[in-house]
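Exercise 7b. Backbone tokens:
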């Protein structure tokens, strides 16, 4: 049995990007752990951070991260993956004040790299993966880059997934993947079921579960790249 560890920026990225591959490994008897980095709570979100909750159709009183952690447990349960939630705060809580800023340069005052690097080093040492996976940061979300850079700073050599659904807008690159995981029907079903568990994200990102299904059914493989 091998241990596959996926380091996900947000509560949904690993499932969206490599849910099929993780499902296949779990079905083959491997141990799968999904570590999500930015799952921390803020008691009373304000400004853009609050807007990110309201645009998902959620009341200000709802504990948005608690809801998303619960969704993540349900998603991981689909394939029997273990979950680890690191309590770091998402970009909207670190001074990024608009949607365009989430996809622009890292803020000078964003001090997340060092604590995240330390935490990932500890958690990866602890989990001792045979295969370590992380985001390639396609789409340039600052949190995805933060995880990619922190993973690199740990000195480990993860294989990097293509961030979906950002990949759809970015298009393919000329780089050569080291793994092309062709999705079986079972992989596809598991990936969809995992993604559907992140209910709070579906309306905003895909216009609902039907929109997700329409998009994801067109994905035939998941690719991994070297660092
Ligand atoms: Zn993300």
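Sequence design result:
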């Amino acid at each position: 049995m091998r241990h596959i560890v996926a380091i996900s920026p947000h509560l949904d990225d690993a499932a969206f990007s490599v849910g099929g591959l993780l499902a296949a490994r779990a079905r083959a008897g491997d141990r799968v752990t999904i570590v999500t980095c930015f799952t921390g709570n803020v008691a009373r979100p304000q400004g853009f951070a609050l807007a990110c909750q309201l645009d998902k159709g959620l009341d200000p009183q709802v504990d948005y991260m608690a809801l998303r952690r619960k969704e993540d447990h349900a998603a991981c349960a689909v394939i029997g993956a273990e979950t680890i939630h690191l309590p770091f705060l998402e970009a909207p809580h670190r001074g990024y004040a608009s949607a365009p800023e989430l996809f622009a340069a890292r803020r000078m005052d964003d001090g997340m790299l060092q604590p995240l690097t330390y935490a990932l080093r500890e958690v990866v040492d602890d989990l001792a993966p045979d295969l370590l996976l992380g985001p390639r940061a396609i789409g340039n979300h600052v949190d995805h880059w933060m995880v990619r850079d922190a993973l690199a700073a740990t000195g480990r050599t993860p294989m990097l997934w293509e961030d979906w659904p950002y990949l759809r807008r970015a298009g393919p690159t000329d780089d050569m993947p080291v793994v092309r995981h062709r999705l079986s029907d079972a992989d596809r079903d598991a990936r969809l079921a995992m993604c559907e568990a992140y209910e709070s994200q579906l309306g905003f990102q895909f216009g609902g579960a039907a929109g997700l299904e329409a998009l994801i059914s067109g994905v035939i493989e998941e690719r991994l790249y070297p660092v």
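Instructor comment: The chain has a mean pLDDT of 95. Residues 5 and 205 are 26 Å apart (CA to CA).
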